[in-house]
Amino acid sequence: QVQLAESGGGLVQAGGSLRLSCATSGIRFSIRTMDWYRQAPGKQRELAATITIDGRTTYADFVKGRFTISRDNGKNTVYLQMNSLQPEDTAIYYCNVKSMTNSPLYPWGQGTQVTVSS
């Protein structure tokens, strides 16, 4: 059974930082490209960051230079370090496995809420 368990969200002031974690189970983590998505209130879910099996990273323009995605294959966990947070970063953050068609492969987990106050 596949599980994607996001954690690490919370309430932070603008300019602050948070580190999100996504612990996975039931997948061969080390051979999977992993994504972080976010969904703001009233908006569609959007891709924020991607990390490949060999550690190559890509970022959406709205997080580039502020967020860093990383992975620990020994812990089957992907991380998202978020710095210089702004109120517009307020959203629920989710991780998922990238499929061959670049879409999310598995059902979504519960996500982790990030709220940035101004």
Principal-axis shape: globular
**Average predicted local confidence, pLDDT:** 97
The chain-level structural class is mainly beta
Radius of gyration: 13 Å
Low-confidence stretches: none
Distance between the termini: 40 Å
Strand order of the largest sheet: 2-10-9-4-5-6
Task: Please describe the biggest sheet, giving its number of strands, its sense, and whether it closes into a barrel.
Answer: 6 strands, mixed
Residue share in β-strands = over 45%
How would you describe this protein?
By secondary structure, this protein is mainly beta. Helices cover 0% and strands 48% of the residues. The protein contains no helices and ten strands. The protein has strands at 3-7, 10-13, 18-25, 34-39, 46-51, 57-59, 67-72, 77-82, 91-97, 112-117. The strands form two sheets. The protein has a six-stranded mixed β-sheet with strand order 2-10-9-4-5-6, with no helix packed on it. Strands 1-3-8-7 form a four-stranded antiparallel β-sheet, with no helix packed on it. The protein starts with a strand and ends with a strand.
Keywords:
118 residues; mainly beta; 6-stranded mixed beta sheet; 4-stranded antiparallel beta sheet
What's this entry about, in short?
With 118 residues, the protein is mainly beta.
Outline the fold blueprint:
Layout: E1 3-7, E2 10-13, E3 18-25, E4 34-39, E5 46-51, E6 57-59, E7 67-72, E8 77-82, E9 91-97, E10 112-117
Parallel strand pairs: 2-10
Antiparallel strand pairs: 1-3, 3-8, 4-5, 4-9, 5-6, 7-8, 9-10
